[in-house]
């Protein structure tokens, strides 16, 4: 974890148009609490990628998830604060330790460890490890992690034999409401 990145980043949150208008008028974001959330509980943003946020909202509509009637996207100014930055090697050891703790708990209780889906769309294990890391820090009296940032390589190759993918993105999970400094309307 660190506070080494530039403090503020722009993130984009895909949602229903009605939700977007409420956020723009000052309502708070609702944190996701799914057991399969890639970066654990929090509010999810696409870093520097409003189009991807809108595409995600449209996907949720097509899948019938998220109560989205009219896909929309809002922008947010995010203060990374204390960031678990999965794009740097400083985050490896805390996650290894949290996984070890989670496995020990499951072994002792004779429970099966959660798993990620083969297509990596459901990240039950990753979410459980991150939740465990938060609990370890809380138990130790350490300050809470404000944000989590991760890079995800997804989609099809953008041309034959390409290492670049159509849906690669950086996701930010804001855990503390204070991390979101403001919201703004995204021009179409």
Short description:
This protein is of the alpha+beta class and 188 residues long. Helix content is 29%, strand content 23%. The protein has one domain.
Give the helices and strands, then pairings.
Layout: E1 8-16, H1 17-24, E2 43-47, H2 50-63, E3 71-79, E4 83-85, H3 92-108, H4 124-139, E5 147-152, E6 169-174, E7 180-185
Parallel strand pairs: 4-5
Antiparallel strand pairs: 1-2, 1-3, 2-6, 3-7, 5-6
Helix pairs in contact: 3-4
What do these coordinates show?
It is a single chain. The chain has helices at about 15-25, 50-65, 90-110, 125-140; strands at about 10-15, 45, 70-80, 85, 145-150, 170-175, 180-185. The chain has about 190 residues and is α+β, with helices and mostly antiparallel strands. The protein has one domain. A seven-stranded mixed sheet has the order 4-5-6-2-1-3-7. The longest helix has 17 residues, at about 90-110.
Main features:
single chain; 188 residues; alpha+beta; seven-stranded mixed β-sheet; 7 strands; globular
Strand content: 15-25%
Overall pLDDT metric: 94
Instruction: Bin the helical content.
Output: 25-40%
Structural category = alpha+beta
- Give the overall silhouette: globular
What is the number of beta strands?
A: 7
Order of helices and strands: EHEHEEHHEEE
Through-space gap between termini: 35 Å
Spatial order of strands in the largest sheet: 4-5-6-2-1-3-7
The tally of helices reads 4
Count of domain modules: 1
Give start-end ranges of low-pLDDT stretches: none
The value of Rg in angstroms is 17 Å
For the largest beta-sheet, the strand count, sense and barrel status come to:
7 strands, mixed
């Amino acid at each position: 974890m660190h506070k080494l990145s530039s403090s503020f980043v722009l993130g984009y949150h895909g949602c229903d148009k009605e939700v977007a208008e409420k956020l723009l008028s000052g309502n708070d974001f609702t944190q996701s609490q799914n057991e399969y959330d890639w970066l654990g509980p929090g509010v999810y943003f696409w870093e520097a990628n409003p189009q991807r946020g809108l595409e995600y909202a449209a996907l949720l509509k097509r899948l019938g998830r998220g109560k989205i009637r009219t896909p929309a996207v809002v922008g947010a100014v995010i203060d990374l604060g204390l960031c678990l930055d999965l794009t740097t090697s400083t985050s490896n050891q805390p996650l290894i330790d949290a996984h070890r703790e989670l496995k020990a708990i499951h072994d002792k209780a004779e429970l099966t460890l959660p798993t990620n889906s083969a297509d990596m769309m459901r990240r039950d294990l990753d979410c459980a490890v991150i939740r465990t890391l938060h609990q370890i820090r809380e138990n130790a009296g350490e300050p809470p992690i404000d944000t989590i940032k991760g890079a995800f390589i997804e989609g099809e190759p953008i041309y034959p034999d390409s290492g670049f993918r159509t849906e690669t993105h950086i996701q930010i999970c804001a855990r503390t409401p204070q991390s979101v400094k403001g919201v703004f309307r995204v021009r179409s």
